[in-house]
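Can't paste images in this forum, so I'm doing it all in text. The chain is below; anyone willing to post the predicted structure tokens underneath?
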Amino acid sequence: MAETTVTIASPGGLRVRPASRIVQEAQGYVSDIMFLVDGKEASAKSLFSLQMLEMSHGKEVVIVAKGHDEQTAVEAMAKLVESIVL
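Text version of the structure:
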């Protein structure tokens, strides 16, 4: 299992368009990738699930992956979340 924590930098949070970018990226990995926010968790491969997390500006997101490419997946997801500034 690999894990990291990132903070949402985007003033608008992670709405539909950025969340769909996360889903597209996550689907390229074999590992199960979960986002955890305020005690709720969602699959990074499900747009609907990510939207339910209400990832607003300043929220901390724990990204956890389990599987063959878990470390690469966590690093890529963290980099993507940190780069989204809309």
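Residues 15 and 84 are 10 Å apart (CA to CA). The first strand starts at residue 2 and ends at 7.
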